[in-house]
Amino acid sequence: MIELLILYSLNKRERTIYSLRADIHEKFGYFTRPSVGTIHPALKRLKMANIVTVREAYSDGGKKSSYYGLASSWQKHFRELFFTPLSENPTLFFTEIQTKIAVLSLLENEDREAFLRDLSLKLETFALDLKNTLEDEYIELDEFQKLLLKKNIQDVENYLAFTEKLKNAGNN
After folding, report:
1. Separation of alpha carbons 51 and 48, rounded Å
2. Which residues of the chain have pLDDT under 50?
């Protein structure tokens, strides 16, 4: 998912890796704080796929800087990455939806609507699975597990309500 954040950040202008990291922290730091050690390999993958370009420049003092920008094919790649199926792992799933929601503005309205519709269905299914687990008389859960499961159900229901707000925001 780091690639989505990189493409979003490079959408406005070229950046050095440190400027890119600062921009990602500034815009997305409320849910992720990738290090240069995470960003660099992702940039390398994007460069190898001809999605990102690199321009070398030297300062008056002779210091070399690499500036990363977007190749003409970046939007197609962004869309492909964006519509990669969400993980079945709940921890990854919630990180992925936060990432995708954070870069939602780069999609066309039709794609945005499709994503939010699919997300709602996925969340409804997830909520139902959690409720069924909680109510299943054959699954022995201790009190802490039950409380955690109830909290997770609440989290999914909150995400469903939030998704509806996002649908409405896109219509304004």
Report:
1. 8
2. none
> Phi and psi of 79, rounded to 5°?
-60, -45
Where does a domain end: 62, 79, 96?
79
What letter does residue 15 receive in the DSSP assignment? Answer: B
Measured between alpha carbons, how far is 6 from 16 in angstroms, rounded to an integer?
11
Confirm if 170 and 116 have CB atoms less than 8 A apart.
yes
8 A C-beta contact, residue 38 and residue 20: no
Residue range of the domain that includes 16 = 2-79
| Half-sphere exposure of residue 157: CA atoms within 13 angstroms, side-chain side | 9
For residues 94 and 63, what is the distance between their CA atoms, to the nearest angstrom? 41
Looking at the fold, whether 163 and 125 belong to one and the same domain comes out as yes
pLDDT value, residue 172: 57
